[in-house]
Structure formats: structure tokens, C-alpha cells
Amino acid sequence: MIRMKPLATANYDFERLITDGCVYIDKTDMLYRLASSKDSIYFISRPRRFGKSLMLSTLKCLFEGKKKLFKGLKIEKKWDWSKTYPVIDLNMSDFDKEGTREGFRHSLGTELQERLERAAISYRDSDTPAMLFDRLVKGLAAASPEGKVVVLVDEYDHPLGGLLDAPKALRSMRREMHGFYSTLKNNVGVIRFLMMTGVSKFTKLSVFSGLNNLTDLTIGVPAYAALLGYTVKEIETVLAPHLKSFARKQRVPQEKAIRLLRAWYDSYRFCPYSGARVLNPVAVGRALTTGILMNYWSKTGMPTLILERLQVCGKRPDNIDGVTATFEDLDVCDAEELPWVSLLYQSGYLTIKDVVWTDDADGRRVTELVLGVPNLEVRASLKSLWWKQLMKIEEKDFTALVDVAKGQLADGDVRMLVGKTLFSLYAALSPTWRVKDEADAKRYFLLFMRMLGANVQAEEVSAFGNADAIVETKKGVYVFEFKFNRTARAAVRQIREKGYADAYKADARPVTLVGINFSAKKRNIDEPLIEPLSLPISSRLGG
Question: Which of 77-81, 429-433, 462-466 has the lowest mean pLDDT?
Fold first, then answer.
């Protein structure tokens, strides 16, 4: 039996990855095109866990001339290994432990002082981080055989990510970072290669002002659309042994295994001019390793802000698909005025689903982008974050309530399920999340029922219209209709008049009609009206 190379899902160090014999998806042909260009300055933003740190680690080893690590890779025979450069690599998340400007300055300053001392470059204790960085760049470049230095900055925006809902602290930190990054602009003459990565473009406008030769790879460069992330082809070829193992664990054919992986982790499209789509590499790696499909999505560091922006706009995780945007919408760099669409796109909660092209006198060009939630993993993550802010109920109490509800659903006790448990769930809604109309009340109901594991069919079509929801269990079929500030009886009457349940008349299971009215005054549902589909003639006449 051929031993599979291990998949490292938490190792972003290229040298250790290669020396440990782990799987490496070879993207060095694209890195060669980037790195072979003289005096190049690049920026790319991608959601978290997309391989940005590993890419920078690979570039570091490349410019340091560690040829042995690249044996057999696409770049090995193309690169000029006779030239090496000192590399300054900084991960800005390492200096943001306290979340304050003072803490950032102290942590970053200490690190830069230590690097200057190791390089035997003098500095003053009173030097700011920007001054220390300037000394380091100039000093290392001067000592380099080529007279230049390579700078790699990972998570350039991390110190700002946690301050997006604190404008005063945000502006203070932004001034600090602007001063620090200005060093790059002042030293472009001695920088052989610069790559900066981040999750967002919140500060790109101010941070990179003056870098006239900056190339932004984030959205508009087709050649690098698949630079980060795994393509389906790469999974089917390089990761073939792991895919085969995953299919066995899932007990499905390999073709279905690919479909499952794509449904959970695929459909990230980062360039409208390219059809290239990629899967989240860390999530895929963990799924292949464990054989389990689940939400491996990491916190973005700004879930509260995301939820607040959605709330202000009246949006929920179940109604953000199909939103349209322009390039200008997605390229907003003002963190304080960032629209919710840009925020979710830059954070990885939305991606490009389709592109609208226009042909006119100015030529053929993209005029609109259609966005949507990338996959099941992100959808689950977004709903989970939304739910935690939505409910003012302890997690253990909610779990207990869900367990009770699951039992009621399995037993067919719809009266207790709706009249007691559902009432309790509506009562647990946070006061800041108002149910303002029938559509709102219905959305919450569908969310509640799906969290219970119910087989819910929303807006089920009949010959005369749509049922608000139909829930099927082994013991019965339940047809729901909602009203807002009316009566439960009016809801049941509509089910009968419109024939919403007629398709189930021949079903061996009992069919039950459930009318629910949400009272804005009570901020909850009234007592539901529950009737079997087949009523005695006298009852129907009386109704």
C-alpha cells in the first residue's frame, strides 16, 4: 500500500511543510510570474484560511535561495538561484494582542528592535516603529549583495479589524498604521519585491497612497484568480488519494464525494473576467482528513459588525443571495462607511456568482456583479452568528428547548410545539430584532423549524397559491399559514379556500392545518388554531 502524504491544515510554514513530507499544491508557476518582474509591489485580499500565509512563506524561501525545498516544483528550473535577498516578513496579527494603539506600538517596536540588533544595525530607543522599520529596510538593503530587500506583510489590516465598530480607536490605529506603511513608499527604490495580504481592503486607500506601481491582485487579474485556494482539478489530481479515502469514509462514489466537497466549500469566484472557482483549502483539508463534512469556518474577527450592518439594512442570512454590485461597490476602502455588501464580500460571506456584461460604443465590459453566499459552510457560519445575536436566551436553555421541541415534533404533538415551544422561542427574540410584518414572522418560524431538524418546505405551491410552510414527519403532514395582526382562524380558512393541503389528501398520514397569527402588540404569536384536514360537515359549515 502506498503511504499517503499527510495533509497539514494548520501548518503555514513552507519549509516545514516540505521537510515534513506533507502535501503541497504547487502554485509556484504563478509565483514565478509575480516574482520575476523587477521591483514589483503587490497586494491581495482574501478571506481567512485561504493560504495567504503559506504563499508568503513560500516567497520568503524563494528569495532566500532555498533551492532544495523547491525540488520538482514548477519554479525550480526557471528561477535564478544565484541571487538572494534579505527578507523582512511581518505578520501584523502578532502585534495586536491588546487591541490598542499603545499595545501595538510597543509589541511591533520591540520586534523591530530585536531584528535590528540581530542585523547589527543601530537605532535609538526613542525611535517610533515607523523609524525602526525605515532603519531596518535601509540597513538590510545596504548589506545585500543586490542592494535590495524583500518585504512580505501578512494580515496588514488585522489591527483594524477589531476596531471597526469603535470609530475613535479606529482612526487612532489607522493613523499609526499609515505612518508605519509610509516607510514602504519612502523606500521603493531599495525594495526588490513587496507583497501585502489581508482579509479586507478597509485601509488600502490610505495605507498605499503613493505606491504608484502597486498591483492589486484582489479582483481584476484573471491570471491569479486561482492563486489561493484549491481548484477541483487540483483536488482530483494532487489530492486524489485523500479524495478516495474521503469517499470511502462517506460511503459514496468518488464523483459524489467531489459534489459534496463542492457544495460545502466551493464556489469562491474572485475575478469576474475568469471562470476560475476555488474551494477553501483549510476546510477541504480538514474534511478530507476527518471524513466529516461540517462547518470549519473560522471567525472573521468582526461578526458583531456584520450582524449589525445586516440588521440596519433589514437583511438576514436567508435573503442576501442575488444581491447586485459594481466594482466600485466592492472596492470601498473607508472602514467607517463600508456598505454591508462590501463588508460581507471582503469578509468571504459573499462571492461572485454571476457577471452581467454590456456591449455598447465603449466596448464590451462588466457592468454588474451578482453576489451570493459561497457554500453550505459559510451559510451555516453566518446563520450561527446571526442566531447568537438574535436570541436573548442562554445556550443551555435554548438547547433544552430544542430537545423538547424535537420530541414534540417526532410525537406529532403540534399543539405543544406551536403553542408552547414556538411561543417561547418568539419570546426569546432580542428586543433589537423586531418582527415588523408577516414575512418576518414567517422567516423566524422557518429558521426555528429548520434548527429542530424538521423537513420544512417553504412556499409550497398548490393550484391556487402557496402554503407558507409544510412540515412532514413520519406521523403526519402539517400545513402552516401565517397572519400578522389578524387571526389564526383567518389563516386556516385561507388554507382551505386555496386548497393548500389538497395534494396530501391521498397521503396515508393524517394531514393537519395550523393557523398562526403574530400579534405586534404582544410581540408574539396568539393561540394557534389546529384542525385536521377532514372535518365533519357540520364543523365545516360552522367554520
Answer: 462-466
